[in-house]
Structure formats: C-alpha cells, structure tokens
Design brief:
178 residues, mainly alpha, Helix Hairpins
Length: 178
C-alpha cells in the first residue's frame, strides 16, 4: 500500500513538471504487470494440477504393474508346485493368464496417458517461465520509468518503455507456447 501512495506522490510531482505522459505510461504499465502476473499465476496453477494428475496416473500404472507381477509369480508357482495335472489346474492357469493379459493392456494405456500428461506439464512449465520473465521485465520497466519522475530525465522513461515493450512481446510469445 505504501508503494501506491509513493507512486501517487511521484505522479503528482511529475504532473507539476510536465511529466504527465510518464505518469500515464506508468499507470498503463502497472495494469499490464498485474494482468501478466495473473496470467502467470493461472498457468502455474494449471501446471500444478497437471502434475498432480500425472502423479496419480503413474501411481495407478505402478499399482497395475504390481498386480500383474503378482499374478505372474502366482502362475510360475502354480507351474512349479502343482502336483496333479488336471482340468482344475488348467482353469486356474487360464484365469491368471487372462488377468496378466488384462493388466498388460491396462498398463500400456496408463503409460500412454501418463506420458501425454507429462508432456502437458512440460508445456505449462515452459509457458510459465516465459510469463515469469515477462512479468519481471514489466516490473523492471515500471521501476525504471519511476526514476524519470525522480531525476526528470526522459531517457529513463524511454528505456522503461523499451523494456516494457520487450515484456509485452515475451508475454505474447508465451501465449503461443505449446
């Protein structure tokens, strides 16, 4: 809150010395900083949600693989320790073999899903990095523009606008990251 009051005081001081364009551009930059920061936070939230889904999918995959492996071991034990061949033992073997086949298919599907979600997480991660960088540039541009109000030298304002424009370009690039 103190920062806003300080900026307001600088804006009043700047308006008195024909610095109105600087103060208006600072207000616009402040709004853009807020929007880019919110956009970045939204992408971070989506990234965390996708990571949670990915973790759940890999956990399900591991559980299915454990079940599959358990049935494989049981089938191996049945082959080694069965004392009497017969229809009942063959039925049990078929039952467990069908379970193994089922889990083989399910684990393949789960692996494909988790790998796809993994790619989504990486995309959100890349996008959030761009938005974080853009927000940092925009915040820096706001600070550099405020130096203009203190020093009354317009080259700081131009530099701030240039950095702000760079932040906007990086934000737009971040929107197209897939």
């Amino acid at each position: 809150m103190a920062d806003l009051e300080e900026l307001h005081e600088h804006a009043e001081h700047g308006a008195a010395k024909n610095m109105a364009p600087v103060t208006v551009s600072m207000a616009v930059l402040a709004v853009i900083v807020a929007c880019v920061s919110l956009l970045g936070e939204r992408v971070h939230a989506n990234e965390m949600l996708a990571q949670t889904v990915e973790t759940d999918q890999w956990s399900q995959y591991q559980a299915e693989k454990i079940r599959q492996r358990s049935y494989m071991m049981l089938l191996d034990e049945l082959n080694v320790f069965s004392l009497q061949p017969g229809a009942k033992v063959d039925d049990i073997r078929k039952k467990y073999q069908s379970e193994i086949d089922k889990y083989t298919k399910e684990t393949k599907d789960l692996s494909d899903q988790a790998t796809g979600t993994e790619a989504t997480v990486r995309m959100y991660e890349r996008r959030s990095n761009w938005f974080d960088f853009a927000a940092g540039l925009l915040e820096s541009s706001l600070v550099i523009c405020s130096i203009t109000l203190l020093t009354e030298k317009k080259h700081y304002w131009y530099l701030g606008l240039l950095i702000g424009a760079s932040g906007l370009v990086i934000t737009v690039i971040g929107l197209f990251i897939h």
